[in-house]
Each structure stands twice: as structure tokens, then as C-alpha cells.
Amino acid sequence: MFIFKFILLCFTNRTYQLEVLIFIMKEKKTLFTVVIPTYNRAKLLKKAIQSVIDQTVTDWELIVVDDSSTDDTEEIVIGFGDERIYYVYQEKKERSVARNKGIKEASGEYICFLDDDDYYLENHLSLFYSFLIEKDFPKIILRSGFSREFERGEREKSTNYEPSLHKNPVYFSAFNMCAVVCLCIPREFLNKDTFPIEFPHWQDTHLILRLLAKYPFHQIDAYTYVYRIHPLMGSIHHFTKKDFSTRMELNLQAIHDLFDRYDMSGFLPEDTGSFLLAEKQLQYAIKSIKVLGRKKSLTFLKRSLRKKISWRLWRLYAIFGVSFMYPAYSTK
After folding, report:
1. β-pair partners for 85
2. Can you give the pLDDT at residue 25?
């Protein structure tokens, strides 16, 4: 039918020839859409974009959503001169809105994410493609592992999901860094579930746990996402002492919201919500040593201890102790 219409319209006037072109463009589907939210990281962004261009799979589009940058982000994006790369600007609304906007603009059948200060190895998309073509393009969430890359270039592999070690994908993601940037998600899944825009933090885990509680999941045995560790990483650098506590409360509210509104009892232990709240408050206690001082950090520590004392948090307790005694050591 497509060929018949193509031949018929090609032998008519120019108006119909234009119709043919539009028809063909609508018929053509992109396999992968990569979404990068960004804000004032033009220099770091360059490497992220180049890593998408360098993919061995070429059937992709890249949507860069600029969250009101004041540097030369727009010039950097447009400067690549690749018709598969789209620049989208939005008024300052933070990462969740930016990612949701990228999803809305996407034409790809599968959505992947990339942070503006990280990058893909060149086989990142090709490993997803190999699995998809072998299984006849199933509706399933795929994940590749990530490696932390430190300033000197050394890398440390993360934990990948293993059915023999982890009870289920939701359990894995609740207690490990699953990272939405490591996932390849059918676009139709993200039409129903999106990033919660009311929470500037923990929004990715909020979405991941909801998705994995509903849809099938497969772990690719590879580490093709590079998570860069550098002095300017992390949202702590984007807000001041004045709103530190407010940001922490919003982070805790995101955890409360998930467990109040969604039933995770079939996937997670009953005390998971309390554990995650204790862990998050302890992480903020460590950060607050340098930002707010020792006295305030003790307040956050006490809140964490009241929520749940767990041997699983021993490493964070140790980091807090050392950071409290030697503030210069405190992690960024």
C-alpha cells in the first residue's frame, strides 16, 4: 500500500509530491531518543553530546533540553551541525520538567537518558539494539551498568542486577544506584509514568521504582555508561545555605510520597521506606558539615537515628564520624 501510494503521488503535481515527502517522514520511525537535561555546563556538555554522535548505532535522535542556561550552551549544541540533534529551551524549572519535556518531544520508540556531565561508551546503544533485534523489539526496560570515572581517569564498576543476588529489580533499585541514565525504556511506558515535577531530588528513583513494579526488566551484562566524579557534580552545588534544609525536606517528601501513594509491598520489605529516609538524612548530615557546620549536622544525624538504625549504613556512619572530626575530608 505504501509503495502504491508513493508511485501514484510521484506522477502528480508538486502539491502531491510534498504530500509524499511528509507521508514518508511520518512513516519513518526513530529507534532511540536520547534526552539530556542541562544547565550551565557547556564545556562538560560537549563531551556528552560527542559520545552520542560516536555511537556505533546511528538510528537515534538527541534532544538537549536547556533549563535556562546563561553560558554558551545553545551555541555548543547548535555548533555540532547534526540534524539528529535538537535544542529545546525552557524557563528555569529544573531537571524533572526538562526530562519530561524531552520525552514529550521524542519520536524514538525507546528513550534513553544522559546527564550533561557524563558520557556513553561507543557501544552503549548498540548493546540495547542487539538485544532488541534478537527479541523482536519487545516492550521491556533494559539496563546497562555504569562505571564511576574519577578525576585522574581511573574507573570503578557499579553493581549490576543479578537475579541470584537480588530479590527482584525493584529491590535492587531501592538499595542500589540503578540510575535512570542507565536505562532504555519503551516510550509508551513514559506516556503513563513521568518524572514527578514537585520534587527536585530523588525524582529518578521515584520513577524507576514505579516503572519496575509494572513492567518487565532485563540487565545487559556490560558497563557502558560513564558517571564522572568531579568537583562540580551533584545538586549540592546549585543551592545555597539558605535553602539547604528546604531541599532536604523536599528530598524526604519524595520518599514519603512514593511509599504513601504506591504499593511496593510485593517487592520490598515493610521497613524500606524508613531505611531510605534514614539513609537520606544521614547523607545530608554528611553534606551539611561543610555547608552548615557541625552543630546543624548533628541535628540531621539525630533525625536519621530516630528513623532507623541499620548496620547497612555503617559506611555512612563512618564517613560522618571522620568528616565531623576532620571537616576538610567531608565529601562533596
Report:
1. 62
2. 38
Please, are residues 172 and 178 in contact by the beta-carbon 8 Å criterion?
A: yes
Alpha-carbon separation of residue 297 from 235, 248, 301, 330 (angstroms): 18, 12, 6, 12
As beta bridge partners, residue 61 has: 33
* Model confidence at 7: pLDDT above 80: no
- Provide the CB-side half-sphere exposure for 304 (13 A, CA): 23
The whole-angstrom separation of Cα 11 and Cα 9 is 5
For residue 67 the three cell numbers come to 533549563
* pTM for the model: 0.86
Amino acid identity, residue 122? E
- The DSSP string of 240-252 is -GGGHHHHHHHHH
**pLDDT over 50 at 300, yes or no:** yes
Q: How far apart are CA 89 and CA 83, in angstroms?
A: 17
Tell me which residue of 286, 235, 248 sits closest to 115, measured CA to CA. Answer: 235
The closest alpha carbon to 175, from 53, 104, 273, belongs to 273
Please write the tens of the pLDDT for every residue from 39-62.
999 999 999 999 999 999 999 999
Contact 147/227 with Cβ under 8 angstroms? Answer: yes
- Three-state SS annotation for 39-92: CCCHHHHHHHHHHHHCCCCCCEEEEEEECCCCCCHHHHHHHCCCCCEEEEECCC
How many angstroms separate the Cα of 184 from the Cα of each of 37, 123, 276? 16, 14, 25
Angle of CA points 6, 7, 9, to nearest 5°: 70
State the cell numbers at 65: 533540553
The correct answer on CATH 3.40.47.10 for the domain covering 25-228 is: no
Q: Residues spanned by CATH 3.90.550.10 within the chain? A: 25-228
Q: Of 225, 127, 214, 233, whose CA–CA distance to 178 is shortest? A: 225
Residue 18 has pLDDT above 60, yes or no: no
